[in-house]
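Entries read chain and fold; for instance:
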Amino acid sequence: MTMDTSNTYLKKLLDAFLEETISRAELQELLELISQYQGNLQELLSETDLERFIQVTSQEQHLDTATSERIHHQLLTNIRQQDLIQPSHKIHRTRWMMSAAAILLLILAGIYFQAIHKTTPKNQELITSTRDVAPPSLSQAYIKLSDGTQIALSDLEKGAITDQGIVELEKNQDGQLIYKTIDQASKGKTGLHTVFNPKGSKLIQMRLSDGSLVWLNAGSSITYPVQFSDNQRVVAMEGEAFFEITTNPSKPFIVNNGTTAITVTGTQFNVNAYEDEEAVRISLLEGSVKINAANHTSLLKPGEQLSVGESSVTLTRQVDMDHVMAWKNGLFSFNQAGLRSIMRTIARWYNIEVVYEGQISDDKYEGQISMDTKLSEVLELLELNHIGYEIDNNIVKLKSTK
């Protein structure tokens, strides 16, 4: 078959795949041709076609699993050899940003990879599960009441809980934790509650007694009064949280985190204050906030971010809020992030321990990938950048393969 004829046939198979008329045998043949293709696929595919591939692959059913594992390995090896992914290249939506050829290869490889897990015998699934970590499927969060009692939030699905006859806690159909005042005469009485959302737990959403909304990421906690006082609303937090504060100019809302105090009256903002990060980052979406930190007072405007380190305070005036809010929308998002920073985020989500072997590159990475992804599939993308990995239950070992 001549080169022109081969390209024509490849284009025919690509069109059949997009139109969802491709047969099982043709799909396998398409994979073989793509894995061996040396030309520029951008001559065969438009950007619209690539997006269409993503839609089609999410519904793909007709798969030949006999050669799936071999093809998957072959395609990933092909990408590595072509050096189609490099540090600081962007990740597009839920995939690493790369050339058109690499995007297509990984999409098609993903079909086969999914097929392996859909059709693997049960005894093999048990073997695989000990060497992989699934993303959180449930919330492991719990609440500590005023008297020290600890209750799993999942238990609230069995019915509402009353604390000191003052408030009632319940979960609505969307899983949101809601506070309701049941004794109006008790207003002014207070008691502290703390919600802990541990590592390896899905994010949770809660509505405080004043109507303010809080989203809490994995590895985070928030402490707050059962009822706020008459002149201010004060909470303390660790980890990461997004706040949507009910407007009340006469009763400011204050978020404390050791080194910082954030004061607002009604606004939307994100606080990243994990202990293992180099700085506390406050990002403002709407309204205005006043921040007191390290003997320094700052006023933020929408789109700005303040980073508070041990010895410095840095204001960034134009921040990508899609990047900041990615975790709330179910995405890992990295912007010029080093490997250790990336792995700290991944470790909190999957509740794993990361061990580094040998010298690790200082390369920076950008991009996004779905948080609803098995750990091995996330690490495979790092493997394309010459970072080898090994999963042993909840311990991940990383080393450079350059």
Summary: The two ends are 37 Å apart (CA to CA).
